[in-house]
């Protein structure tokens, strides 16, 4: 490269400067020398090399002591380039008749350190011109220039908005420059999260170059312009018993730390932090809630609906009623929205609500009235009714001759709750028969059955007793030789005797009375006739000898 028509060597600070002697070596060369020129033009010789003796001598110049090297082709090298090496050096070739000279200009370049933004502001306030920081780039040569950037775009100076001041200081011992650029800036709200940086532009051996600082983000303070209230935790619905938190926030930076909360029913705002906690809320908490800054400016509001669900079951708990009584049952619902109601009896869902105009044993059980608000998660209520239907023991006895004609089955059909205890006796002796078999107790009913083979007529007594009453019923049973089918065993436990057709019921009663009178006459005639020849003993299954004697005496009296 040429500078003002002169040959120029560009060197990097700290590297070795190499300057070739750009003269052709003449014939008869005696020696070669290098010198540099002082600012006033006077020469300072620094190196000498003889062409004949091949020896090299370096002048005692303090700035170049131990730094010089002169090669055989008269190329001069200077180690550890300094800023002070920026001079006009001259190569001289001397013969007996002539002295030839060729100058070389040395330029030294030093890259500055990466710029840093120092003395940064702790925060920036909108609408206020303040010092943002200083961009410092050290040890540059030649001096560089500093430019400020915001989000990658150049910040141009603007009065009262962007004020930039650049200072350049040179170190006299090294000749290197330090550039310091201060930036005064008036931020806006949009400068939140903006990246500020600075770039130093400098010249190197190959031309212009740049180095950028690390970006810096400043905390920008700006006043609150809007207040927002919200309900936490965020959910679609709120029910009684929930805990909720009102949170008030402002969009300023830093955000406000205190607010006024306005609660329904309260005339004055309640001063609190940014949250207001409400525990175990009730339905009367439904209403409009507001919050504002402490100076009562910038208010926001929200409406809270506390959903509720009440269930009243009448009667409830454990209820004991007598069979045949009426029991009105009501399940009343009060709710914030339409509720779904259903009944469960003994873990089985019912199709309709229970209604009892005449209680039966099968009506007893555990009833649950349950209601839910499907739109409100977790809101459901239930109440229980434990219905106990009590009844005094009721007895119906039946008899029949078994198909083998060797025995008869006597059945005592019992109704009642609590479950009655059943005993069998033979009339006149009171002996207890322990060989009875009982059916399963279902809906307040069961049967006790015995099988006998009487050799003569007997009377059996069925005794049913519970906490309410003791009921006794007797039945005459003929000897085994007389078949009996007049009272077939009642096999129905489903209240089939209840006939709703009034006309059929009346006809049945009339016909039944007529048949009963006829059968009673025939039975009585057979009984009297048979008693004359009946055996004096009853099957040993029916009792002891004393009871048989009494029956024999009774039969004798009847015959007389």
TrEMBL record:
One of its GO terms (biological process) is cell adhesion. One of its GO terms (cellular component) is axon. It is a single-pass type I membrane protein. It is found in: Cell membrane; Cell projection, Axon; Cell projection, Dendrite. The chain crosses the membrane at residues 505-527. Gene3D superfamilies: Immunoglobulins (2.60.40.10). Residues 103-212, 223-305, 324-386, 393-473 form the Ig-like domain. Signal peptide: none annotated. This is CD166 antigen. SUPFAM superfamilies: Immunoglobulin. The gene is Alcam. Keywords: Adaptive immunity, Cell adhesion, Cell membrane, Cell projection, Disulfide bond, Glycoprotein, Immunity, Immunoglobulin domain, Membrane, Repeat, Transmembrane, Transmembrane helix. Pfam families: C2-set_2 (PF08205), Ig_2 (PF13895), Ig_3 (PF13927).
